Amino acid sequence: MSICTKTGDKGTTSLFTGERVAKNSLRVQAYGTIDEVSSALGLARAFAQKEEVKQLLLELEQTNLKLMADLASITDKYYINNEIISNIDQKIVEFEAKLPALTAFIMPGNTQSGAFLDLARTTTRRAEREVLTLAEKEAINENVKIYLNRLSDLCFLLMRVEEEL
After folding, report:
1. Residue 117, SS3?
2. Which of 26, 86, 96, 125 has the fewest CB atoms within 10 Å around its CB?
3. pLDDT tens digits along 126-164
4. The whole model's pTM is what?
């Protein structure tokens, strides 16, 4: 099967559950932004200096596939669940404990990985806003909102970990 199916030539795409929607629909915009987040996480992983960060970034990229599936589906069977939320909460606590208290604003960019993690954080915040807009119009997995809020926090912490000298 070719990557070029030509089925989207008229501005529509298929959701994971088969429905055809406009490529600029709120749903497609939301999961498209998550795809951008995953790209930024991949860049951060490619340049990460700390093995624990590198491994966690791979896990987050894999979880984002589930997140996109939730947003690309019109269903009540979801992948992002309470266990995934608990896991990300646990990672936040774990990494926060390794860092000194913040006393000033941080200017990211001391490392390539840190800069890409900050890009992932800000892109996650945009995805969160897009998901909130989508949720005003259509039913979504409510855990997606929670996960995105936590993911941006975790990206910030991982940026700090990578940029610690």
Report:
1. helix
2. 86
3. 999 999 999 999 999 999 999 999 999 999 999 999 998
4. 0.91
